[in-house]
Design a protein that fits this description.
The protein is mainly α and about 210 residues long. It contains 8 helices and no strands.
Amino acid sequence: MNGVMGKINILCDWLIRLVLIQCYWVLFSLLGLVVFGLVPSTMAMFSVTRQLVIKHEDLPLFRTFKENFMSQFWKGNGVGAILFLVSAVLYVDYRFFIQTETMSAVVFLILMISFFAGMILCFLFPVFAHYDVKVWEGIKNSVFVCLSHLHYGLLAVVGVGLLIVLYVMFSGLLILIGGSTIAMFLTILAQKVFKNIEQKYLALRENELT
């Protein structure tokens, strides 16, 4: 099918995939009672979006989501515990220092650290989806990716922020495709970064061998 109808058909197919991924994300988060299921389910969602982005369009979505959720359950909860701890420390520090007018510089520093942590978070799940790494190695790789591609990190944060604003304005979109579209956006962005890193690494290896 070519022309406009073909493009509409492709768009509908992708929308159906995004809706299904969103449903699976919610379902498996609930299966883990949210607290224990949210991060593993998010990791599974990014694994699925990665495979879709690299042209596995006939991917069995539910089976792939389930397999990734089960295989990354404990790793996901380890990542979740670290994310919770970091978020709690930043929040408590912010609440403490914001009450002291003389500590405005410290509050600004905390906000800057939080913003940078948000940039790292944008790459964290794509890193775990792309590389088979342990928890701390994945976090270190995310920091490296962010530091080496700050402009992509800024684009990721701005893009996610704009999507969130859109979903606040149209809450129906949030329910249907909110999480899956953010995951797809970050996956596409991260794949460009990973490709760039891998090309630079191969070029460096070739220079070393010649």
